[in-house]
Protein: M15 family metallopeptidase
Organism: Sanguibacter inulinus
Amino acid sequence: MQITNSTAPRPTRPVRSGILTLLAILLGTVLAAALVGLVLLSVTGWIQSPDETASAHTSSVSVGSDVTSDEPPQTGPLTEADGLIPAGTDITAGADLPAVTRLNPALRAAVEAATAEATLDGQPLYVTTGWRSARYQGQLYDEALATYGSEEDARQFVATPETSTHVTGTAVDIGPLDAMYWLLEHGPDYGLCQTYANEIWHFELATTPGGTCPEMLPDASHLGG
Ligand SMILES: [Zn+2]
């Protein structure tokens, strides 16, 4: 009897454990498949994101290396690549145009910060001229030369490509007129100063934020413009 009792459950045990084993194998397979799926997904994700990062880097590098690799063509009409701002377009220092992306980064950041405060004051502040290619500056200078007749007179209004602070990306001309007055008052908070007495629109980083602007030069012939 004892033998029967003890042996009776025996046949069911292997069956149960067999089912359990099968379930365990099935569960294991499902889990393994899920894991493989997850791994594949994450691997794909990993592969994609470095790619995106790489291409983002490539594009930002190409923007940053404009100075050497993406110089505007030396012939044909001037384009945005020369720092030209399309007529009738109001752009701010944060715009995605070479005229502002090729500015000295510290100057651009200062103008962007000032623009943010001006906007809060209800005063729009646009960049009418930022960085210019040497060829663009040369054309402006040639036009001034034709207009004023002598180098001495022309240089009071337009700097040569060799001396222009626009070509070096260290100056911005801003507008409209009210923004010029606004920046004259608030610009020094950001280190921004009007540097030529005859160019109320022309600003450069010329002091430390909150500092005092240096005395203005009479006109661009004395340094840059
Ligand atoms: Zn200027």
